[in-house]
Design brief:
With about 210 residues, this protein is α/β, with parallel strands linked by helices. Helix content is about 35%, strand content about 30%. Strands 4-3-5-6-7 form a 5-stranded mixed sheet, sandwiched between helices. The protein has a two-stranded antiparallel ribbon with strand order 1-2. Strand 1 and strand 2 form a beta hairpin. Helix 1 packs parallel to helix 5, helix 2 runs parallel beside helix 6 and helix 5 crosses helix 6. The protein is globular and about 55 Å long.
Length: about 210
């Protein structure tokens, strides 16, 4: 009998914690390979902080999933030094570029992601409510094979009430950002990005 999705996520969320006597000790997950998260591509949407938090969410998920996160000192300089143009939404990085970059910085995998935000204010009962959505496209290449090993999309909303919240809670290291109704858009966008990243990477990091 195959374990259900809820049990798999529960087991994954407990992977990093082991109980020893009356204390709690962090257990090191078996390494599943090294990975670099670059380049991150954005359109004109989202604040600088929420964009940075989207990248942080991806990094957290990989780390918790047992991957060794590698952060090159100046990845953009390395990228340009290889003669590559900075990727855009209209002109994303090619597989060949990602593989070359990954081999240059010494990692097994390279994850690139494109991220868009949409924030709006709606009227609920007697006051305004700010809602943000995030859409994330993720591509992961394997530098050993020189090919794409994983592609997925993830969507998240700051007011999410579905099973996506359980996925995010299981995969993230830090708790979901609390988004206050009617508050500034950065917390809303950050929360939406955390959920979108979790949905996009779930099938890559959770081994059934």
């Amino acid at each position: 009998m195959m374990p259900n999705r809820s049990n798999i996520l529960k087991a994954f969320s407990l992977l990093a914690v082991a109980t020893l006597g009356s204390g709690v000790v962090t257990a090191q997950a078996p390494s599943r390979g090294s990975i670099a998260v670059f380049p991150m591509i954005y359109d004109q949407s989202g604040t600088d902080t929420s964009r940075a938090k989207a990248a942080d969410a991806l990094a957290e998920i990989f780390t918790k999933g047992g991957f060794k996160l590698v952060k090159p000192a100046d990845p953009l300089k390395s990228w340009r030094g290889m003669g590559f143009r900075v990727p855009t939404m209209a002109r994303p990085a090619t597989v060949e570029q990602l593989v070359s970059f990954g081999r240059a910085v010494g990692v097994r995998y390279v994850c690139t992601a494109s991220v868009t935000f949409h924030t709006r204010s709606i009227w609920v009962n007697l006051g305004p409510k700010t809602i943000s959505s995030c859409h994330m496209n993720v591509t992961i290449v394997d530098t050993r094979t020189g090919a794409v090993t994983y592609e997925a999309e993830g969507d998240g909303r700051s007011d999410e009430k579905s099973d996506k919240l359980k996925v995010a809670a299981a995969l993230l290291v830090t708790p979901l950002v609390t988004a206050v109704s009617g508050g500034p858009k950065t917390p809303q966008e950050t929360r939406a990005a955390q959920i979108a990243a979790s949905v996009a990477l779930e099938k890559f990091v959770v081994v059934e």
